């Protein structure tokens, strides 16, 4: 038998899909044949994504979701399941990532970073997990980062939040894998997106990043999408509780 990498016909959720990695992941997952429910704080911001997916022959629907609100998370996941009849795949991508020197970190900044990147991811996992446990199957992929296991200057809150994502992924795998849910994380390096372009197009910053990546190039959204689709597919049915790094070898050093 050959491994099955297909997600055609699956019902998939991608949070934080209005821009950046989430936008590209939603496009890739739709192109792979899944029906994609995309979320963002502002539903109207998802209109360009819906149009592009439809133009490419895919299927998608938009939902307004602020992952800082546990009540809204539960409501939206229940609505998506009611609309499509089941929930096969969830990609927890929504996140924030501005840098700040440790001595300048405010309580407000810390709370925003952890509320979105860690609390939001957990309660999305919980809402999806409750539905998937009732079904007896499901795939959850959390978008972590290479800096979940290595530090970077000005990244104290971000690194802490992503390290937490790794740990909650492990614990949920221990609790849920025997009941049909595979839950994993992906850890990208610097990925070229409209949001990262300004820094990555700065020659000095780009040289510093490339010096740390043995593969010799900046990551693309397609690199991340390949890992996510693998973890969402039947080919990864024995893979759970792990972090799949998409970092060109950065953390191998």
Automatic annotation (TrEMBL):
Keyword Oxidoreductase: yes
Pfam families given in the database record: adh_short_C2 (PF13561)
Taxonomic placement: Bacteria, Bacillati, Bacillota, Bacilli, Bacillales
Sequence similarity: Belongs to the short-chain dehydrogenases/reductases (SDR) family.
EC number: 1.1.1.-
InterPro entries, per database record: NAD(P)-bd_dom_sf (IPR036291), Sc_DH/Rdtase_CS (IPR020904), SDR_fam (IPR002347)
MF terms in GO: oxidoreductase activity
Name of this protein: SDR family NAD(P)-dependent oxidoreductase
Superkingdom of source: Bacteria
PANTHER family, per database record: SHORT-CHAIN DEHYDROGENASES/REDUCTASES FAMILY MEMBER
Keywords assigned: Oxidoreductase
């Amino acid at each position: 038998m050959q491994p099955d990498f297909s997600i055609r016909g699956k019902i998939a959720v991608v949070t934080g899909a209005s821009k950046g990695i989430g936008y590209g992941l939603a496009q890739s997952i739709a192109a792979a044949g899944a029906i994609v429910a995309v979320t963002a704080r502002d539903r109207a911001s998802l209109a360009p994504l819906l149009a592009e997916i439809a133009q490419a022959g895919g299927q998608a629907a938009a939902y307004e979701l602020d992952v800082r609100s546990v009540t809204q998370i539960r409501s939206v996941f229940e609505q998506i399941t009611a609309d499509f009849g089941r929930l096969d795949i969830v990609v927890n991508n929504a996140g924030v990532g501005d840098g700040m020197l440790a001595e300048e970190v405010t309580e407000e900044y810390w709370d925003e970073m952890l509320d979105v990147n860690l609390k939001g991811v957990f309660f999305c996992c919980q809402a999806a997990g409750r539905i998937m446990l009732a079904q007896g199957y499901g795939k959850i992929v959390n978008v972590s980062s290479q800096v979940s296991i290595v530090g970077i200057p000005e990244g104290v809150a971000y690194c802490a939040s992503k390290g937490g994502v790794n740990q909650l992924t492990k614990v949920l795998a221990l609790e849920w894998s025997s009941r049909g849910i595979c839950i994993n994380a992906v850890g990208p390096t610097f990925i070229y997106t409209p949001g990262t372009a300004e820094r990555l197009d700065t020659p000095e910053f780009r040289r510093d990043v490339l010096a740390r990546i043995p593969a010799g190039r900046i990551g693309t959204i397609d690199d991340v999408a390949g890992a996510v689709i693998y973890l969402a597919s039947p080919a990864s049915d024995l893979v759970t509780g792990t972090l799949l790094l998409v970092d060109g070898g950065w953390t191998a050093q």
